[in-house]
Specification:
Helix content: 10-25%
Number of helices: 2
Radius of gyration: 20 Å
Number of strands: 10
Shape: globular
Strand order of the largest sheet: 1-2-9-4-7
Order of helices and strands: HEEEEEEEEEEH
Distance between the termini: 84 Å
């Protein structure tokens, strides 16, 4: 009996010595904004690092139910976690609903460098991405790039 209690105490002491992961910031504590490279109403918030500079960063995206994210790619590999909601994602250069896979909150995926992906928010979604900066996004089809649409509107208004 004494041995069991001593072993349990040692095991508990060992667990207490392990580092405790920092709790992820609550969505309400983050500074959300629209970013020209992402279609509205997708909003982005920086959790850590600076995605415009070399080095590691963590960002979150939030989007409403039904939001479609056109095929796009990144020059570096990224790790994406579905924080909230149900997100459908598939590699490819065009939308093909039959090939899409459904991912629920808690799922972590790897988006390979240079590989195009497209996605759809089945419900309201919050995604978290980890990567190496500087962060760059390239849309497979130029007409899907919101930066192109905004620049055309601005020049038409002049």
């Amino acid at each position: 009996m004494f041995r069991t209690a001593a072993f349990a105490a040692l095991a508990l002491a060992g667990l207490c010595a392990l580092p405790v992961p920092a709790a992820a910031e609550d969505d309400q504590d983050l500074k959300w904004s629209f970013v020209p490279a992402y279609p509205r109403p997708i909003e982005m918030a920086v959790v850590s690092g600076d995605p415009t500079q070399p080095g590691p960063f963590v960002v979150r995206y939030r989007m409403p139910s039904g939001m479609k994210w056109s095929p796009h790619r990144y020059p570096n590999t990224r790790e994406m976690t579905i924080v909230k909601g149900i997100f459908w994602l598939v590699p490819g250069e065009s939308f093909n609903w039959k090939d899409m896979n459904e991912y629920k909150a808690g799922t972590t995926l790897t988006k390979e460098a240079g590989q195009p992906y497209f996605g759809w928010a089945r419900t309201a979604v919050v995604l978290e991405e980890r990567g190496e900066g500087p962060s760059l996004i390239e849309y497979v089809h130029a007409e899907d790039d919101p930066r192109n649409k905004r620049s055309r509107r601005a020049s038409a208004a002049e």
